Amino acid sequence: DADVTQTPRNRITKTGKRIMLECSQTKGHDRMYWYRQDPGLGLQLIYYSFDVKDINKGEISDGYSVSRQAQAKFSLSLESAIPNQTALYFCATSRGVETTDTQYFGPGTRLTVL
Amino acid sequence: TQLLEQSPQFLSIQEGENLTVYCNSSSVFSSLQWYRQEPGEGPVLLVTVVTGGEVKKLKRLTFQFGDARKDSSLHITAAQPGDTGLYLCAGDFYNTDKLIFGTGTRLQVFP
């Protein structure tokens, strides 16, 4: 079984709808991250969490919110989706001892906002 | 704003050719990682370099960290179709708690 899972894998929604993307991990890591990937832009950090009580904004947090329900679960919400939020979204985890620790990525969620 | 520029953006080559991908920044990294991403999957770590001038090899892949810790390169010898994918560098800049990812190099190796 995969260590980092994301649901749903694909989602098509309409402008203005509220969307939640979920991430679960079985690696026992404290640190979790949400990234967005657009063609030609690499990965951009949306939010990151170093533990259940520590949540931080990344480079592009506007229009997004997160919830760290437990060590193993980190959800990303789009309160009112807009077309330019169409992208591939990745969740990642890391051990959290050093920044050089490996980040383990989920398989991604492809979101389309019409 | 700390940026990582990768070049080339796209690379299409025949099996057996050699290639080099570059990752550059105007800022100094404390460490740098290279990831490979295949279609439909998340990125997977290939290597981490920490020391300026460091060279690491992973089979046919050679990774180098610049002496000034502002750049890195990935060289693939005798590329194979299985090397096809998106290659991403990611830098850890001093005094930050997170990685900054580069723009990516999409490699296609034809049989």
Question: Could you describe the 3D structure shown?
Answer:
The complex is a heterodimer of chains A (114) and B (111). Chain A is mostly beta strands and 114 residues long. Chain A contains no helices and eleven strands. In chain A, the strands form two sheets. In chain A, strands 2, 4, 5, 6, 9, 10 and 11 form a seven-stranded mixed beta sheet that branches. In chain A, a hairpin with a 5-residue loop joins strand 4 and strand 5 (43-51). In chain B, the strands form two sheets. In chain B, strands 2, 4, 5, 9, 10 and 11 form a six-stranded mixed beta sheet that branches. Chain B has a five-stranded antiparallel beta sheet with strand order 1-3-8-7-6, with no helix packed on it. At the A-B interface, strand 5 of A face strand 4, strand 5, strand 9 and strand 10 of B.
Features:
heterodimer; A: 114 residues; mainly beta; seven-stranded mixed sheet; four-stranded antiparallel sheet; 11 strands; globular; B: 111 residues; five-stranded antiparallel sheet
Q: What proportion of the residues of chain B form beta strands (DSSP E)?
A: over 45%
Helix percentage of chain B? under 10%
Average pLDDT for all residues of chain B? 92
Helix and strand element order of chain B: EEEEEEEEEEE
TL;DR of this structure?
The complex is a heterodimer of chains A (114) and B (111). Chain A has 114 residues and is mostly beta strands. Helices cover 0% and strands 54% of the residues of chain A.
